[in-house]
Amino acid sequence: MPASVFISHVYEDVAARDTLRAWAGKGLLGPGVVATGESEDLRQGGPTAIKRHLSPMLQGASAVIVLVGNNTHNHDWVDYEVHHARSGHKKVVAVRIAGTTGAPPKSLAGIEVVPMDANLIRRALGT
Q: Are 63 and 91 in contact (CB under 8 A)?
């Protein structure tokens, strides 16, 4: 059965998200790993619409990868996704986007941040 990995990111880091999705599609994150994540801009619908969209994907994921870029620490929805994952006892992997220096969100306290490298991410996922 494929492992579903939710990718948490901020809009400006969509290129890194797309890279992870491509790596998953090629099997570089592990056999059968499927990448999911936010796919629509639901901000106009408010917080309830966003939570309704994210919750099933987070619940169905076996792990959450959090892309850490320059402004990740300033986004409440990343914290929401991390808290949701932790409350569901899911593995959380923090990944530093190359060329960025922003701090990880406080919700990632105690989690090692690994470089954006398919082999290191795969190892951190345990796949």
A: yes
Contact 29/6 with Cβ under 8 angstroms? no
pTM confidence score: 0.90
Tell me how far apart the alpha carbons of residues 69 and 15 are, in angstroms, rounded to a whole number. Answer: 11
Residue type, 6: F
Alpha-helical (H) ranges within 14-73 are 14-25, 46-60
Distance CA 33, CA 20 (A): 11
Residues 6+ apart with CB under 8 A from 102: 68, 69, 70, 71, 72, 73
Length of the chain: 127
pLDDT in tens, 51-96: 887 888 888 999 999 999 999 988 888 999 999 999 999 999 999 9
Return the number of other C-beta atoms located less than 10 Å from residue 101's C-beta. Answer: 9
Nearest Cα neighbor of 24 from 68, 62, 69, 77 is 62
Residue pair 98/115 in contact (Cβ under 8 Å)? The answer is yes
